[in-house]
Design a protein that fits this description.
Layout: H1 2-21, E1 25-30, H2 38-53, E2 58-63, H3 71-80, E3 85-86, H4 113-120, H5 123-130, E4 137-147, E5 149-152, E6 166-169, H6 173-181, E7 185-188, H7 194-200, E8 206-208, H8 210-215, E9 224-226, E10 232-240, H9 241-245, H10 249-284, E11 288-290, H11 294-304, H12 306-310, H13 312-315, H14 317-327
This protein binds (2S)-2-hydroxybutanedioic acid.
(2S)-2-hydroxybutanedioic acid binds near residues 89, 145, 170, 208 and 212.
Length: about 325
C-alpha cells in the first residue's frame, strides 16, 4: 500500500513538474445539449476531475449547447483533431459508417436502465466501441440519458395519432424506419435547430428524453407530450485516437480514472435528471403530459415491432440477437 501511494505521489509530482514546465494540454470537449442535463453535468464533472487528477497538466474546455460545433460538424472536427472529446448520441454514428450503435434506437429494445446497462457494460458494448477504431476514433465510455417521449401539437394516444406528421429525428436509419412504421414523415435535423423548427412549424413533432425537451424549451412549442418510452437515447464518449494514444502515459492514466468516475456520475444522475425535468415540464403548465395506459403502450409496442426485423440487414441480425440474449 505504501509503495503504491509513493508511486502515485511520484506520478502526481511528475505531472505537476510537467505542468509547471510546459503549457497545459488543452482538451476541447464539445457537445450540443444544455449544461443542466445528464451529459452537460457529466462533461463538467470530467473537467473537474481531469484537471484535479493531472494537477493542472490538462485543461478541459467544455463547449455546451452547440456553441462550438453542431451535430455533423463535431464528428468531422474530432477526426481532424480540432476537438478532442465528444459525447454524441448513439443515434448519430451512422453517417460516420458505424451502424452498430443504431441498435440502441430499436423501439422498446430495453425494458429500462437495468436492461440497457447489461449491454453498455458487457461484451456487446465493448465490441461496439471497438468498431470506432477504424475511423481513427477511440470509444471511452457510454453515458446514459434516458427514454424518449413523443411530442406534437395534438394528443398522441395511439400510433395512428402520428400519421402524416413531420417528425424531427436524429440521423439514424432505425429512427427513420420507426417513423415510417407510424406513417409519419421523418426529418433529420441538427439538435440546435429543433426548437425553431417546432416553433415555426417546419416540423410538427419530435422525440426526446425529458431533460432535452425541457432544457431546450421544446415543451413551450409542443402542446402534447406522451410518455411512450419507446426508445432509448444515450451517448458514446469518444476521442481522437491519435491524440489519446499520444498523451504521456501518466496523464492518460489519470484521464482514464477521471473518465471512469464521471461515467459513474453520469449514469447515476441520468434518471433523476430526467424525472426532475418531467416534473418541471408538468409544473410549467405549457403542455399536456399524457401517461399511456398499459393497453395503449402495448399498441405502440406492436406497431413498432416490425422495425427490428426490417433493420436486421442494416445493423446485423446477430448483433440484435446478442442484445436480446444479454437483456434476457
Ligand atoms: C438529439 O439530437 O435529439 C440528441 O441527440 C441531443 C443530445 O445530444 O442529447
Amino acid at each position: 500500500m505504501k509503495i503504491r501511494a509513493l508511486l502515485l505521489g511520484l506520478i502526481a509530482a511528475g505531472i505537476t513538474a510537467t505542468a509547471a514546465a510546459a503549457d497545459p494540454i488543452v482538451i476541447k470537449f464539445s457537445h450540443v445539449v444544455a449544461t443542466d442535463t445528464p451529459k452537460g453535468k457529466a462533461a463538467e464533472k470530467f473537467k473537474e476531475l481531469a484537471e484535479k487528477y493531472t494537477s493542472g497538466a490538462v485543461k478541459v474546455e467544455v463547449y455546451a449547447n452547440s456553441t462550438l460545433y453542431k451535430d455533423k460538424e463535431e464528428m468531422e472536427a474530432l477526426q481532424l483533431g480540432a476537438v478532442q472529446l465528444l459525447a454524441p448520441s448513439l443515434a448519430k454514428f451512422g453517417p460516420l459508417g458505424v451502424r452498430e450503435f443504431e441498435a440502441f434506437d430499436l423501439p422498446y429494445i430495453f425494458d429500462g436502465y437495468a436492461d440497457l446497462h447489461k449491454v453498455t457494460t458487457g461484451p456487446v458494448g465493448q465490441m461496439m466501441l471497438s468498431k470506432l477504431e477504424a475511423k481513427g476514433i477511440k470509444g471511452l465510455a457510454f453515458w446514459d440519458n434516458g427514454f424518449k417521449s413523443f411530442s406534437a401539437n395534438s394528443p398522441i394516444k395511439t400510433p395512428d395519432d402520428l400519421k402524416g406528421k413531420k417528425m424531427r429525428i436524429q440521423s439514424s436509419k432505425v429512427l427513420e424506419e420507426q417513423m415510417r412504421e407510424l406513417k409519419s414523415l421523418p426529418q433529420v435535423m441538427a439538435f440546435s435547430e429543433v426548437y425553431q423548427a417546432l416553433q415555426t412549424g417546419v416540423v410538427d413533432g419530435t422525440e426526446n428524453p425529458h431533460s432535452n425537451l425541457y432544457t431546450q424549451k421544446m415543451h413551450e412549442v409542443q402542446k402534447n407530450v406522451t410518455l411512450t418510452e419507446h426508445g432509448y437515447l444515450g451517448y458514446a464518449v469518444i476521442t481522437n485516437k491519435k491524440f489519446w494514444d499520444g498523451l504521456p502515459s501518466a496523464v492518460r492514466t489519470e484521464l482514464e480514472k477521471a473518465m471512469v468516475e464521471s461515467t459513474e456520475y453520469a449514469n447515476t444522475i441520468a434518471k433523476e435528471e430526467n424525472d426532475k425535468a418531467l416534473a418541471a415540464v408538468r409544473a410549467s403548465g405549457k403542455t399536456e403530459v399524457y401517461q399511456l395506459t398499459p393497453a395503449e403502450k402495448l399498441a405502440f409496442k406492436k406497431a413498432l415491432a416490425p422495425v427490428h426485423k426490417k433493420m436486421e440487414s442494416r445493423i446485423g441480425a446477430d448483433l440484435i440477437q446478442s442484445i436480446y440474449k444479454e437483456t434476457g
